[in-house]
Amino acid sequence: MDAHPRTTLPLQSPVRAEQLDRPPSGVARRVSRVAARARLEHELRSIAVDLLGPNESDDLPAASADWVAATTQAAISGVCEAALDGLVQALDSLLINVPHDVGRRLDEARVRHDAGLT
What we know:
Layout (H helix, E strand, L loop, with lengths): L25 H8 L2 H17 L9 H34 L4 H15 L4
Helix pairs in contact: 2-3
């Protein structure tokens, strides 16, 4: 049995009709500021290399290397977009019911971080 049981929090439906016309949430607005997409793409690229094995251009003919690079990039881009969208929606769903004191502390920590104090 797991020594650290996991708590599962219920998620609300990912996209509700009233969310379609709303401006982006605070979490969604911070995606570009924290360079989330570039960071996730970097990690996914590293994982792809681990899964496929290193395939340097001198290991494969040029056309094959180009195909592997293009196919890998297409997979990374699709997965990255879906993962970020899912993460933002999940966080937004969970943060709807954030206790006031937790929300306040998160805001304070974000302000300190943005000011370079952490």
